[in-house]
Design a protein that fits this description.
heterodimer, A: 309 residues, alpha/beta, Rossmann fold, 15% strand, B: alpha/beta, six-stranded parallel beta sheet, 4 helices, 24% helix
Chain lengths: 309, 200
Amino acid sequence: MANQQLSSKHLLGIKDLSTEDIRLIFHTATNFKEVINRPIKKVPSLRDITIANLFFEDSTRTRVSFELAEKRLSADTINFSASSSSVKKGETLLDTVNNILSMKVDMVVMRHPAPGACQFLAKHIDANIINAGDGTHEHPTQALLDAFSMQEQLGDLEGKNVAIFGDILHSRVALSNIFCLQKLGAKVRVCGPPTLMPKFIHKLGVGVSYNVRETLQWCDVANVLRIQLERQNIKYFPTLREYSQYFGINRQLLDSLDKKIVIMHPGPINRGVEITSDVADSEHSIILQQVENGVAVRMAVLFLLAAKG
Amino acid sequence: MDFVISTINLSAPTSMEKQRIIIGPERFSLTIERLCHQLVEEFDDFSNTCIIGIQPRGVALSERIYRHLIDQLNIPHIDYGVLDITFYRDDFRRPGASMHASVTSIDFLVEKKNVILVDDVLYTGRTVQAALTALNHYGRPDKVELLTLVDRRFNRELPIRSTFSGIKVDAVDQAYVKVEWANTHGEDRVLLFSDKKAAQ
């Protein structure tokens, strides 16, 4: 087992990872979880590494989580957000990043509204790149922390049933989750209104359902996604109230099932829309454990990529 | 305090002779027993002393010593933990560095305690240096002692020495010392190889 390394020097998407890569990240994350629960939560591993966090799109959790992970690994960090930078003056992505890299930065964590922005960057620059969400494409660290949290609850995911609810069409979390869960042997079903379902989603080998109750009855874990109103430039459903009635997950629905399922949400939650407060805050929900695991998983990813050099 | 009972002065085995057994099973158990008695002599009932094995290879030794102290020498309780130093290594991003972490489990604070760090072979001293850094994260111990089964005293790169050692081995730099355990390798023994490759 010694000397194991990731197969790639970037984390652009789950699609490029092997199952062994995912298991190595989880193994390392377990050790980092122990580290972040110590009285002193810091290790010196990345003390000679500088990391740039480039956020061309809004973020709370992912950004704070990456920053904490970097700091707990003793890396030096710089933060950059598009709203307060020269991007507004018309500088291209490549110019912006090259300028930052010429200040001797080793790794780049980037969130960008354009799908494939990280792939583009990886072709042109030398630093390790971590995708922190690119448009509607992938959000690999979220999928890793979701699967890691599921594994903590259920053990090995081989043969487990995982359902993803909500806005599948606009969700990078859904796509990364599907890739990740399938690589770990889980069965995946997506459920939401037909208008928010990508046309060829079944080609990925996932089940498709439009019935929330039936899907809840089938699954061991329900990963509930946010309705991404900011990416919807046309109306995909009549009203939020109607969406909530047909596709929202509420306590009554959960209590009517004859089994206990795990409820997850990548945040931010639209309370009362895709999930009601009494479910989000219930004993079924592991939403806050997901956030804690997020730091450990991101520490593992940063550590393993930095080790690749 | 330096409990040296035996020293082996060896040139590395020639390519003809790929490995040499420097401690066989009988001597091995005698050495463990002796180390345990030395610990009892020094730390009495272990009321303010804990044992911490360094992952991965020091743990087999620390486990054996811990069990012997409890089962054979009737020590009622010893704080026992294992420490992984992967995230504290100074050879990160250098070729050959192992980045495969193991479990750390220390469910007590080392503040104001005597700590016995345990590793199988003391060679360059860099693992022990990393362990000392890591240990700081669990409090400020009164005193840290080092116990190793094999002390390769002429190969040190840092000013570190072991307080308790099973055997001192003086061998050339490229030689490789390997400790094998009955439960994983079938027999307790210490082997000397001409180089690391020969040991694989």
